[in-house]
Here is the input.
Amino acid sequence: MIRKCSDKDFEEIYQIINDAAIAYKGVIPADRWHEPYMSKDHLRGEIDDGVNFWGLEEQGILMGVMGIQDRRDVTLIRHAYVRTAKRNLGIGSRLLAHLEPLSEKTILIGTWAAAFWAVAFYEKHGYSLVTPEEKNRLLKKYWNIPERQVETSVVLRNTKPG
Here is the structure.
């Protein structure tokens, strides 16, 4: 079952993000890796800034989460993570398919350039990489991330029809 997450899910969201983000260790630039990958304060800040998390739940346990954030004229997909033990079972695909219809705007997704599996996942679902110049403009306009993260990230876009 896919459902909107609530405050009671905070700890589980935190655990899923940090479990799944282990895949980035040794892949993303070392100066961007943290232990834990996302602190509780950072996660709380993301939620306070309007990231609404949705989760896929099985037998009362969240298996994966994905955030959606309205940013003026676009919608951002943020913080998409699936428990390491539950990867490659379609959880991310189901979450993305659930979130896409919630917006009639262009959807943008930012991820690490070195996370080839994440880029391939979004491309499989109809997203395309924007040019490096457009990426820099979009990341600075819609995200609140450090310059170093802008340098080492990509943006993918899926424009809504009509």
